[in-house]
Amino acid sequence: MLNDCRTLVVEDTAEIADLIRLHLEDLGLQVTCAADGIAGLELARSGMFDLIVLDLMLPELNGLEVCRALRADTRHYTPILMLTAKASEIDRVVGLELGADDYLGKPFSIPELQARAKALLRRSEKMRGTVTPDDKSLVRAGNLEIDTLRHEVRLSGKPIALTAKEFDLLLFLAHHPGRVYSRAQLLDAVWGTTLESYEHNVNTHINRLRAKVEADPANPQYVLTIRGVGYRFADT
């Protein structure tokens, strides 16, 4: 339920922060605001929020630095909707590669802001709901183990440090072994966007994932490429 969700808005322009707060509260969300990157990061690290709306241009720490720090902390995973007035494509790409879940350029419409927020919250709830302690909490394939309750990955019993997005990508593929997904399908399922210009993020994360979980990334055992189509997780 949205009225049970808490949202952190990190925005240094008071008028914009108030506007965002008012319209997210219209959805029934509980909203807390922070006016700089350091304060926002401290609040976000508490793990008490269900969504973070993060401005790119912030005093103290910018939004990319905050995003990077949050995604390096694997104790909590909170969806991030990044806001920016900068129009450059590279800013959007970098933001997504660092772990932002969605991107909204300023100026934005209120209905679009609300729709993006609701989509991120619902997708996050759905992903949590796909795992039950009795039968899906541990995914095994060969020497690879994915522990969804602990949000941990182990290879031959040794823990592997993955970013939150790498974990989400691996878990999604592993939950559907043998099924081939195009980059566009993975982008939609894991990142929640269908913009073709972001499809290279899938390639980047696949390469990083293989470097961590494959004994020989050039000849992967788990995350396989189907040339001209996409990727699939090996049949178990």
TrEMBL record:
InterPro entries per the UniProt record, alphabetical: CheY-like_superfamily, OmpR/PhoB-type_DNA-bd, Sig_transdc_resp-reg_receiver, WalR-like, WH-like_DNA-bd_sf
Protein origin, superkingdom: Bacteria
GO cellular component, one term: protein-DNA complex
Residue span, Response regulatory domain: 6-121
A GO MF label: phosphorelay response regulator activity
Domain OmpR/PhoB-type residue range list: 136-235
DNA-binding region: 136-235
A single GO BP: regulation of DNA-templated transcription
SUPFAM superfamilies the UniProt entry points to: CheY-like
Positions where 4-aspartylphosphate occurs in the chain: 55
Keywords tagged on the record: DNA-binding, Phosphoprotein, Transcription, Transcription regulation, Two-component regulatory system
Protein purpose: This protein is a positive regulator for the phosphate regulon. Transcription of this operon is positively regulated by PhoB and PhoR when phosphate is limited.
UniProt name for this protein: Phosphate regulon transcriptional regulatory protein PhoB
Species this chain originates from: Sulfuriferula plumbiphila
Lineage: Bacteria, Pseudomonadati, Pseudomonadota, Betaproteobacteria, Nitrosomonadales
